C-alpha cells in the first residue's frame, strides 16, 4: 500500500564533435553527447553525467520491479526529455529540468535496505543498456509524454503532434489502481469547484437534482475535454485537479444524496503507458517495440558517449 500511494503521488514526465557538449549536427540531424546535470545543495554544487542522473530519475518515474525492457524504454524517454531541454549547452541545472529524481536515501526508504541493491542494479542496467539512445520524429526530438496507466486507450494529441496517436493499451486495465471512485458530499464538491480560478459560484441546489453536472465533450479515448457544472463550462483537467482525481477520464453519478466520480487510468493518458507497456514486455516485447508502438513512426537514435 505504501508503494501504491507513492506512485500515485508521483503520477497525480533530448562534422562530429570533438569536445564534450550537448549537441552537434550530423547529416542534418541533431546528435547528442553525455552532458552534465548540476545538482545544487546547501554545501556545494555537484556535476553528474546525464547517464548517472538518469538512474535517480527512473527511481522516481517508474516502479523498479517492472520488466527490464519497460525500464529501458523509460530510460530512453527520460534521456530524450533531458536532451530536449539542454538547448545546446554542456551543462544544465537540475531545477531547470523540472523532473523528479530520488536521492540514494529516498530510494532506500522506498525499496527498503534489503531490496535497495537489487533495485538499483536493475535501473543502472536499464540506463547502461540504452546508453545514449533517444527518440526522434522527422529528424527532431519528440516531446516524450508518458503516463502510468491510460484509460485502456492512449490519447491522440492532434495533427500538430503526429507521433502521439491513439493506441490500444489493454494491459492498463490490470493496474491495481486503474479504477478509482471517490465520493463527495455535495457541499464538499461545490466548495472544490468554487475554488477553481475564474469559477462562477455554484450553489448546492443546482446539483441536487442530478442535472447540474453534464459531460459536454470527450476525446476518442474517453477523456473529458469539457464539462459543465452549474452555469459554467470547465476543461476536463480543471475539474480533475479541483477534485484531486487520478486522470481526466471520469463520469459522475448521484448516489444517496452524494456525488460519486468514476475515474479510469492514472495520469494524462498521452504517449507511453507504463503499465500497459509492462504487460507487453511480459509477453516478450522489446524496448524498441514498446517505444515504436506507443510513439508513432519514431526513430531510436544513438549518440556519442
Which SSEs are present, and which pair or pack?
Layout: H1 2-11, E1 23-26, E2 29-32, E3 36-39, E4 46-49, H2 50-61, H3 68-86, E5 91-93, H4 94-97, H5 104-111, H6 116-129, E6 134-137, E7 140-141, E8 146-147, E9 179-180, E10 183-185, H7 186-194, E11 213-218, E12 224-229, E13 232-235, H8 236-243, E14 250-255, E15 258-264, E16 272-273, H9 274-282, H10 287-294, E17 299-301
Parallel strand pairs: 3-5, 8-16
Antiparallel strand pairs: 1-2, 3-4, 6-7, 6-17, 9-15, 10-15, 11-12, 12-13, 14-15
Helix pairs in contact: 2-3, 2-6, 3-6, 3-9, 3-10
Can you offer a commentary on this structure?
- The chain has 10 helices and 17 strands.
- The protein is of the alpha+beta class and about 300 residues long.
- It folds into 2 domains: about 1-145 and about 270-300, no CATH class; about 180-265, no CATH class.
- Strands 9, 10, 14 and 15 form a 4-stranded antiparallel sheet that branches. Strands 4-3-5 form a 3-stranded mixed sheet.
- It starts with a helix and ends with a strand.
Biggest sheet features: 4 strands, antiparallel
Bulk shape: elongated
How many alpha or pi helices? 10
Query: Percent range for helical residues?
Result: 25-40%
The tally of strands reads: 17
> What's the rounded overall pLDDT mean?
86
Number of domains: 2
What is the radius of gyration? 21 Å
What structural class is derived from the secondary structure elements? alpha+beta
Order of helices and strands: HEEEEHHEHHHEEEEEHEEEHEEEHHE
- Strand content range: 15-25%
Distance between the termini: 40 Å
Report low-confidence residues grouped into runs of 5 or more.
Answer: 4-28
